[in-house]
Design goal:
Blueprint lengths: L4 E5 L5 E9 L2 E8 L2 H16 L17 H13 L7 E3 L3 E6 L3 E6 L3 H6 L2 E4 L2 E6 L2 E4 L16 E3 L12 E3 L6 E6 L2 E9 L3 E7 L2 H17 L16 H10 L4 H10 L4
Antiparallel strand pairs: 1-2, 2-3, 4-5, 5-6, 7-8, 8-9, 10-11, 12-13, 13-14
Length: 268
């Protein structure tokens, strides 16, 4: 066998070739290949990454032919910081980068390093997510951003970089369903609205918490009227149960909305 290459067999008896490299006391698998020569070239490619300090995250792709870009990032980080991560993480000063093929360089605070070193980021239909305990979770969920949130409306990126997921850069504008932040004559407000065969404005409130409760009350009224729709309820953690009940009681639903429910609801 050529240096760094190991013969292996599938259950079917088919032969393939594996390769890996050992550096700083850590053996890193480089993958499987159909020929011995390809496995050997991958081994040599990995060796050059460790030996040539001029190879960095900016020019890495031009030095790769047999190894994946993500594997190359793993090797670069191990070379520069003597720290191995199984995911394509490269440590920075005060944060880290996660390189995702076809997407680019994602930036995260070091607080998230443990999580993303053990959870691989995937992409489907433009959405970034991880598999965790058999479930798919969008990476924005760590900021309290719901799946239905709209970029530019419900959340924004302070520096304009939509790949920068550092906490100081992700600005949550609307964290509750049925609530929209806006301004009138430079006065901010939170508008509660519900969609049932059209958009109904429930009211404008000084806080998003109050608007979230107003939306919940509108949902309860629709359910009580027999409107068949899979409504999403808000969990308002800012209030104690008593405070929630007080706010809920004080909120008055608009007559236009109540008239619609009375006319179109099934339980009249």
């Amino acid at each position: 066998m050529l240096p760094g290459v190991f013969l292996a067999k599938k259950k079917s008896g088919e032969v393939y070739y594996r390769t890996g490299i050992t550096k700083y006391g850590k053996h890193i698998s480089l993958g499987s290949f159909s020929t011995e020569e390809e496995a050997h070239e991958a081994y040599l490619e990995a060796g050059r990454i460790y030996e040539d300090d001029s190879i960095d995250t900016l020019n890495l792709k031009s030095h790769l032919k047999y190894l994946s870009f993500e594997k190359g990032i793993v090797l670069l980080n191990h070379r520069d910081y003597k720290t191995y991560f199984k995911t394509p993480i490269y440590l920075r000063q005060g944060y880290f980068s996660y390189f995702l093929e076809g997407v680019g360089e994602l930036k995260f605070d070091n607080d998230d390093l443990f999580y993303y070193s053990s959870h691989r980021i995937l992409i489907h239909d433009g959405h970034l997510y991880v598999n965790d305990y058999g479930m798919q979770y969008g990476i924005l969920a760590r900021f309290g951003i719901k799946n239905f949130a709209v970029a530019g409306k419900d959340y924004t990126f302070a520096n304009g970089d939509s790949l920068d997921f550092r906490y100081s850069n992700v600005v949550v504008v609307n964290k509750y369903h049925g609530v929209t932040y806006s301004e009138a004559k430079e006065v901010p407000y939170h508008e509660a609205h519900i969609h049932i065969n059209g958009e109904y404005i429930i009211g404008r409130y000084s806080t998003d918490c109050e608007a979230a409760v107003a939306y919940n009350k509108a949902v309860d009224a629709a359910v009580d009227a027999g409107i068949e729709k899979n409504f999403i309820q808000n969990y308002v953690l800012e209030y104690t149960p008593k405070e929630y009940a007080d706010v809920y009681t004080e909120i008055q639903l608009p007559e236009k909305y109540l008239s619609y429910l009375n006319k179109h609801g099934k339980l009249r």
